[in-house]
């Protein structure tokens, strides 16, 4: 940037104090929030947004913008004032509404790229791992699209993390992969203030963080909030250090600017309270002047008078706007002029690129605006596998069918690619210095895998997938939850989906996982019964692109008889529309009239239902319907009349079969609804024997429902 070598310390300090003022007053108004971090890191924040970050608030989605990720999301009142000051669409009124219903300024930052909020943070460590994912995306985009003289992608990802982020295991996993890959477009800043909620960190955290990161392959530097000049220099140096991700260990004082609460855990997570705010104002020349301008000379000299003014401001907050600070606005918005020039250069470069590399330009446009092609839609709608196989194999095949046509599909597994079949065939792994590949070896780091995948999904240019055994979803859950919260287009592929895993035993047999996923808002869980349902699950994900999908596949083979079943008299397109309702009639025994019993379930249990139906058909003179439910959430959302029709108005017995726990729901099963499921952990034995021991055979299911048939 133009002013890279000269910074205006005086103005930085004034703006930092203004950030402190906004944080203090907004948190006081909301009666909740975390002032400690904003106060400690205000100078750093101003430095970053004024001099370092290359962002354009007028074009917030500029693909080559630098990213700032506040991993320590509790410090959101650092981020909002900075975004406001540089001109994002956040106003003083929005900040006055901090933490209120429907406001832009939620308690923790919530993913809204147009406002400059790059990801949702709050659960500590997630933002840091997202930053690693965004850095990987940056490297991938650079390698795919940069040409000599045309650096379209060279952005840097900055993340601010705290003690909490560093204590969380996910930061180790993500830092380890970042170090391994040599992500030199990533700069983490560690707000080292030696305080967390319960007290000083010497009661919990005495790692040598510098050595830890060095050991992980990072370049580490130190700076302190008391020395803005050195911090600035270090940040510039770090940006130019190549070959490794960088960590700046940044010594700060929590609650800086306050009196008694400064450097204590009292200021971590509750309002500072009026006497402390008054102390701050009296000791900040910039903020003192703001108050004097509004309330008259001398208004702030007397502490008691100042406290009364503050108390009135808080009480009458509906009519008392936050104080504006024109000089700070002016100072911070100079950044905008400078980065806009950089942005315009980029735009020009892009226009020239379009001329010089029209095909690549078109491909880039497809990356930035994904649309499912009609041809792939057709292929997925008409897909068949025909042979007996496990749905994980079929998933692998369908994934690659999609990957051939959609270069944005990238991903991998946590060291289980050959088992989950979550791999893009024919592509190399990404590695240090070469990000041309589409395969990511996440290593045995499930939690970071999910959060890094989220990072890859944030900008919507890549379509990431991550995969592992379903039982290890537990190791990923916090990040899967955030993918759901942000509606990220991240495909989670979980194989080895039930007790049928067999010999590996209860640790490897998912029981409660299926329903845990189904409880996540915005996420759709597909457990396909066969080849067509597997392809349709991919189609659903790629067609809607409106949030994460979890695809649950079997380890064991599915019988050939179950493959390729299309309801009679229905075209594939019509069938797909039925599939989108979440469930459909898979099979019906011969006979006229309404069925006397409905058997339903998902995945491999559709096969079991089909077998049981054959027994009922042979032994009882009752018509049986088998309903496949590949996505229970969709079926639950579909119109009631469709469900009633499917389940025969619930007038006759409905038997729900799933090799999973549905603990608690049994309470609501009336005499017509039989639940055949699993109430305990699994067992170690060959899969078929385990299934037998849990009553997952056609004979045992038949016995359970026999009395219903009487
Ligand atoms: C995964 C997770 N666990 C717990 C919390 C609750 N929490 C929020 S901030 C915090 C302490 C963080 O300490 P530090 O990173 O040092 O932040 P500082 O006190 O310096 O602001 C905790 C435990 C959380 N947000 N996320």
**Distinct small molecules bound, one entry per kind:** thiamine diphosphate
Q: Classify the secondary structure makeup into a structural class.
A: alpha/beta
Number of helices: 27
Q: What is the percent of helical residues?
A: 40-55%
Quick synopsis:
This protein has 27 helices and 20 strands. With 710 residues, it is of the alpha/beta class.
What does this protein structure show overall?
With 710 residues, this protein is an alpha/beta fold. Helix content is 44%, strand content 12%. The chain contains 27 helices and 20 strands. The protein has a 6-stranded parallel β-sheet with strand order 10-9-11-12-14-13, with helices on both faces. A 5-stranded parallel β-sheet has the order 1-2-3-7-6, sandwiched between helices. α1 packs across α3. The radius of gyration is 29 Å and the shape is elongated. The protein starts with 8 loop residues before the first helix and ends with a helix. The model has no long low-confidence stretch (mean pLDDT 96). The structure holds thiamine diphosphate. Residues 36-37, 72, 74-75, 122-124, 162-164, 168, 191, 193, 195-197, 254, 268 line the site of thiamine diphosphate.
């Amino acid at each position: 940037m133009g002013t890279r070598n000269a910074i205006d310390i005086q103005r930085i300090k004034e703006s930092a104090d203004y950030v402190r003022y906004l944080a203090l007053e907004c948190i006081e108004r909301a009666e909740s929030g975390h002032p400690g971090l904003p106060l400690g890191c205000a100078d750093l924040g101003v430095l970053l947004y004024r001099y370092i970050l290359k962002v354009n608030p007028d074009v917030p989605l500029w693909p080559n913008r630098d990213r700032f990720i506040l991993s320590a999301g509790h410090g959101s009142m650092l981020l909002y004032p900075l975004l406001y000051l540089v001109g994002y669409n956040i106003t003083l009124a929005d900040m006055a509404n901090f933490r209120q219903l429907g406001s832009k300024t939620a308690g923790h930052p919530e993913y809204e790229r147009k406002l400059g909020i790059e990801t949702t943070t709050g659960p500590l460590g997630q933002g840091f791992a997202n930053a690693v994912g965004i850095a990987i995306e940056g490297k991938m985009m650079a390698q795919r699209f940069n040409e000599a003289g045309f650096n379209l992608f060279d952005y840097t990802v900055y993340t601010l993390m705290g003690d909490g982020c560093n204590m969380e295991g996910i930061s180790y996993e993500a830092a380890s992969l970042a170090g391994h890959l040599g992500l030199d477009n990533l700069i983490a800043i560690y707000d080292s203030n030696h305080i967390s909620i319960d007290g000083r960190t010497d009661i919990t955290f005495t790692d040598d963080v510098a050595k830890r990161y060095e050991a992980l392959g990072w370049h580490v530097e130190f700076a302190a909030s008391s020395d803005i000049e050195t911090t600035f220099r270090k940040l510039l140096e770090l940006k130019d250090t190549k070959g490794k991700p960088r960590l700046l260990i940044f010594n700060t004082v929590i609650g800086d600017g306050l009196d008694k609460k400064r450097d204590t855990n009292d200021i971590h997570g509750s309002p500072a309270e009026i006497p402390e705010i008054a102390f701050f104002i009296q000791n900040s020349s910039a903020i003192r002047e703001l108050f004097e301008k509004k309330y008259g000379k001398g208004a702030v000299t007397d502490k008691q008078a100042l406290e009364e003014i503050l108390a009135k401001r808080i009480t009458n907050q509906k009519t008392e706007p936050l104080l504006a600070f024109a000089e700070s606005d002016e100072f911070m918005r100079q950044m905008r002029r400078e980065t806009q020039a950089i942005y315009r250069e980029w735009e020009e470069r892009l226009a020239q690129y379009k001329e010089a590399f029209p095909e690549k330009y078109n491909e880039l446009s497809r990356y930035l605006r994904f649309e499912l092609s009609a041809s792939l839609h057709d292929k997925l709608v008409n897909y068949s596998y025909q042979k007996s196989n496990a749905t994980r194999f079929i998933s692998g095949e369908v994934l690659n069918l999609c990957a051939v046509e959609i270069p944005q599909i990238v991903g991998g597994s946590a060291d289980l690619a050959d088992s989950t079949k979550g791999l893009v065939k024919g592509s190399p792994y990404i590695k240090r210095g070469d990000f041309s590949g589409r395969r990511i070896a996440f290593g045995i780091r499930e939690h970071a895998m999910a959060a890094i995948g989220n990072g890859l999904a944030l900008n919507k240019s890549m379509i990431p997938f991550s995969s592992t055994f379903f039982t290890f979803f537990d190791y990923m859950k916090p990040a899967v939850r955030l993918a759901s919260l942000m509606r990220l287009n991240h495909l989670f592929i979980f194989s080895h989906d039930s007790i049928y895993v067999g010999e590996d035993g209860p640790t490897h047999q998912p029981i409660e996982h299926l329903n845990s996923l189904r409880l996540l808002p915005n996420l759709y869980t597909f457990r396909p019964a066969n080849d067509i349902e597997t392809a349709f699950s991919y189609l659903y994900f790629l067609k809607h692109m409106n949030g994460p999908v979890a695809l649950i596949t079997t380890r064991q083979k599915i019988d050939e008889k179950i493959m390729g079943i299309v309801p009679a008299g229905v075209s594939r397109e019509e069938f797909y529309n039925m599939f989108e309702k979440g469930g459909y009639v898979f099979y019906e025994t011969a006979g006229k009239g309404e069925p006397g019993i409905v058997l339903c379930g998902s995945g491999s249990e559709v096969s079991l239902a089909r077998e049981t139906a054959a027994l009922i058909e042979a032994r009882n003179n009752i018509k049986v319907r088998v309903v496949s439910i590949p996505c229970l959430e969709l079926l639950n959302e579909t119109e009631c009349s469709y469900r009633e029709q499917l389940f025969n108005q619930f007038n006759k017995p409905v038997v729900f079969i799933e090799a999973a726990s549905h603990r608690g729901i049994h309470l609501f099963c009336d005499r017509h609804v039989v639940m055949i499921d699993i109430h305990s952990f699994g067992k170690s034995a060959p899969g078929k024997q385990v299934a037998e021991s849990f009553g997952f055979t056609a004979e045992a299911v038949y016995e359970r429902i026999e009395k219903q048939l009487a």
